[in-house]
Amino acid sequence: MIAQVVFDPLLPWAAIWALAGLALLLLALALWRGLAGWALRGLAAAVLVTALANPSLQREERQPLSDIVILVVDESTSQTLGDRAAQTGAAVARIEAEVAALPNTELRVVRFGDGAEDAGTLAMTAVSEALAEEPRARVAGVLLISDGRVHDLELAPQMPAPFHLLLTGQDSDWDRRVVLKNAPAFAIIGEEFVMQLQVEDSGAVPALAGTEVELTIAVDADPPQTYTVPVGVDLDLPVTLPHGGLNVLQFSVAPVAGELTDRNNAVVAQINGVRDRLRVLLVSGEPHAGERVWRNLLKSDASVDLVHFTILRPPEKQDGVPVDELSLIAFPTRELFVEKISEFDLIIFDRYRMRGILPMSYIDNVVQYVRNGGTVLVAAGPEYGAVDSLYRSPLAEILPVAPTAQVVEKGFRPKITDLGQRHPVTEGLEKFAPEGGWGRWFRAVEVEKLSGQTVMEGPDGLPLLVLDRVDQGRVAVLASDQMWLWGRGYEGGGPQLELLRRLAHWMLKEPELEEETLTATAKGDVLTITRRTIREEAPGPLTVTGPDGAKVELQMMRKAPGKYQLDWKAPALGLYRLEQEDLTRVIAVGPSAPREFVATIASGKALAPVVQATRGGVLRLAEGVPDIRSVAEGRPAAGRGWVGITPRAAYVTSDVRVSAVLPGWVWLLLAAGLSVAAWLVEGRRRRSAR
């Protein structure tokens, strides 16, 4: 029961204070005049003023509330290192017992793990949420069990009570990690760039760790290479991407006995290889309606450097002018076909025929260019079956089709073959067809396939587009010069740009256009694995090797002709190796360097400002779980071997009763009695004075 006097004035407080001031003035006047009853007059005025203030006696029935201690337990991944989990468990048990022994005190235990999407340790978020669940007036203290590696320090809340950090870990902890300081998202194929990394030691590093380490570098699934590098020194590594598309580079060092973890001994960089500029040599022969289609298509792409070598005089025109005098300036044929031929990414022969301008030795150079990894596209017209055809040159060694000298001139619609339905160059091209189907072509060269893959066919099932691999290079033959009809929209046209784009990318060995590919993309911890094949039978099982060396076999589902796909949830972050038949792919799940393993040595430095603001403390659990004491608010709340909480004496009011101190008539009687007494005293004084 708590009793107190409260006031409910009958007049505004301003009026009451004015009346009190007037009473004081009158009292001062009475004292100055020497009136004997001035004291009684003052008491009467005081009684009247008090009555106007209307004092009441308020009695409250209060029920005391217990104090609350919040214990926030960090269960993030870094808390699993060393003996931190055991330290945490022992500390929680001891604190639960300590708080249970305190009178009128409750314990709230809040546990939290890793933040989503590699956000790290969100300790301050957990503390804020815990405080939001409890009345702040009852919170007597907040204890955080953690290694101190907090990644949301800027969200630290205003603490209503002492905040303490109970630090896990040992003074002797040390760790070694690979730090990748810069890694571009994109790089140009074939051009060298520099990546900077460092092998870093932290903590109480023992002498056995050494000052040099073996650094292993692996690119995709290629055999790794090992180098000896110093520890703690920035290393500049020159890198040249071997292919387009995603390149996975892994840098790792061997684990050393005694270090906290080997999860950060490797780092992965995923870099997309792109081409700076595509260098194309277009050799045009006999002028025809579609000649400018190739030129306009290639010139419209700003990433293409085009060199166009063209013959403007038809072969049937004989005017006696020597061949070497047919151009206004000497065309650098030797420079193009001898000295710089290897610099071109693609050579296109558009209705070209041998007429003595390019010697056979130059054509031999083109053959060697293909065998060494170059690409050639032949867009053939009627000249392909003539006596001066390219097939009658050394280029025949690498051409996949032989002419029969027959030309079919009738309307037909190009058709994708069964193989073409599965080949990445022509797969799904039907969806680009206008209503009613593709427009017709009206001429095709009759050829016999010698090798390669026929992905499109023309009239009477004749090969129309044939693709082939020759040693390290690639060759494609289009047995018609009528594709320009699609470009001009004849009868609705067709997918000219899409077909040529895919064809160019296949010839340039872009990974997404390979016939046999195994690709994977990671979204969070889910891998989407895709297998493309041009075979009719389904591929064998997929073997996935995880970062811990564990293997699992998976079956892929058919999604489309030649396309198989699988969504698989990875059990852990890290580097995964995918193997199916003779194909291998490496993919990283999660960040290249998980945030929980960037800094692993326990430290209270980051949280020190938050702790000091509440006069709390940072205590190492390795030195023992501290005792919990009660301290007055504003006093130091931590010391050697102990932490303090501040009892809040919170309560809830269950009943309130208010009664007048005195009835109104009593106040009036008192004031009147005092006034009469003052009058009688003053009257007696006057009579005695006479």
Task: Please describe the structure with a list of short key phrases separated by commas or semicolons.
single chain, 690 residues, alpha/beta, eight-stranded mixed sheet, 12 helices, 21% helix
If you had to describe this structure to a student in words, what would you say it looks like?
The chain is α/β, with parallel strands linked by helices and about 700 residues long. The protein contains 12 helices and 39 strands. Strands 18-17-19-20-26-25-24-22 form an 8-stranded mixed beta sheet. A 5-stranded parallel beta sheet has the order 4-3-7-8-35, sandwiched between helices. The chain has a 5-stranded mixed beta sheet with strand order 10-16-15-12-13, with no helix packed on it. Helix 2 packs antiparallel against helix 12. The protein is elongated, with a radius of gyration of 46 Å.
Quick structural summary:
With 690 residues, the protein is α/β, with parallel strands linked by helices.
Low-confidence stretches: none
Structural class: alpha/beta
Cα radius of gyration in angstroms: 46 Å
Number of helices: 12
Largest sheet: 8 strands, mixed
Strand content: 25-35%
Helical coverage, percent range: 10-25%
Mass-distribution shape: elongated
Indicate the mean pLDDT: 87
What's the SSE blueprint?
Blueprint: E1 2-7, H1 13-33, H2 38-53, E2 55-64, E3 67-74, H3 84-101, E4 105-112, E5 114-115, E6 120-121, H4 123-133, E7 139-146, E8 163-167, E9 174-182, E10 186-188, E11 193-203, E12 212-219, E13 225-230, E14 235-239, E15 245-253, E16 266-274, E17 278-284, H5 291-299, E18 304-310, H6 333-339, E19 346-350, H7 360-371, E20 375-379, E21 401-408, E22 415-416, H8 418-422, E23 444-449, E24 453-457, E25 463-470, E26 473-478, H9 484-487, H10 496-507, E27 517-523, E28 526-532, E29 542-545, E30 551-554, E31 557-560, E32 563-569, E33 574-580, E34 583-589, H11 608-613, E35 618-620, E36 627-630, E37 638-639, E38 642-645, E39 651-660, H12 664-689
Parallel strand pairs: 3-4, 3-7, 7-8, 8-35, 10-16, 17-18, 17-19, 19-20, 20-26, 36-38
Antiparallel strand pairs: 1-2, 2-39, 5-6, 9-11, 11-14, 12-13, 12-15, 15-16, 21-23, 22-24, 24-25, 25-26, 27-28, 28-32, 29-30, 29-33, 31-32, 33-34, 37-38
